[in-house]
Amino acid sequence: MAVTIRDVARATGVHVSTVSRTFSAPNLVSTPTRERVMAVAAELGYRPNRAARALTTGRTHNLGLIVSDIANPFFPPLIKAAQAYAREREYHVFVADTDEDPQAEEELIRTLAKQVDGVVLVAPRLTNQAIERLGLELPFVVVNRRVKGLSAVLMDIGHGTELAVEHLAGLGHRRLGLLSGPRGSWSSEQMKRAAAVAAERADLRLTVIGPNAPTERGGIAAATAVRDSGVTAVIAYNDLVAIGLIEGLGELGTEVPADMSVVGVDDTVAGRLNRPKLTTIVMPTPAAGRTAVDLLLQAVDEDGRTAAQATLATDLVVRESTAAAPGVADTGA
Q: pLDDT tens across 167-210, in order?
């Protein structure tokens, strides 16, 4: 027969209500008692009834996680890390994909709001005003976007962009291109600002090309504009755009890195397997997934009354897609 809450209470020597609070509101139970109850429950194989607990606590113990394009290799490591961390906290995660459509994003949020305690919104396409309005209805954590009144996890793409500019300057490049992302992208705007500052500091000429779709096709479509811009090196919005750009440049007879150096963003498996292997800005996606769930559970516990922000470091990994500028001896930078 299935182990019941009364079996756990009897074996632990506490009241049934204490066992119930251990699972529904552990902060209300002393640490020694909570640990004893959890140990006995594990030994007996007891699993709390999620539906009953939801009725008692008003919590579903479900979280929503919405991404803009689940096919983009940037997202799976973040999703897996978020799910694993949530599972450790006895939460389940519902994952949804908006296909880069802000209207679909809002519809998904409203649908999930009936089934979850809070939502992690990753690289959203909605306006800040729309997100603020939806944030009044349930707790939110936004990844790679600052929204007033909401907790956020930011990956310091600005620092990574500066490292990329410095790397390319060290290779002798004097004219740089920045292949921006979709209109309204927070990450793209941070990259533009950081690239402009770093380029001015290094006395380089910067050309921004975009907006562009954040996909391989977006990179292919931008290849002609990149070739005709006169730049000798490009920082692309993400690895997919960089891979598409390399493909498109190849079709135009421009070789990477001999004729054009290309830097991606994200450090995805696709970039590591590409030929040439991508030099790229490393984004801490697993850490972002874990941190986002942690901040969301804090927001759920506090009914969204407080907002916290975490900023995660980025780095640059140099591989095969960058080289000395044409006509410049390789300095080994």
A: 999 999 999 999 999 988 999 999 999 999 999 999 999 999 99
- What's the whole-model pTM score? 0.80
Identify which of 106, 64, 13 has the alpha carbon closest to the alpha carbon of residue 292.
Answer: 64
Domains assigned to the chain:
5-57 (1.10.260.40), 62-155+284-313 (3.40.50.2300), 157-283 (3.40.50.2300)
Q: Which of 232, 233, 236 is nearest to 222 (CA)?
A: 236
Can you spell out the DSSP letters for 221-281? HHHHHHHHHT-SEEEESSHHHHHHHHHHHHHTT--TTTT-EEEEEE--HHHHHSSSPPEEE
The lowest-confidence range among 55-69, 250-264, 267-281, 305-319 is 55-69
Matching residue, tokens 């790397």: 167
Instruction: Quote the pLDDT of residue 219.
Output: 98
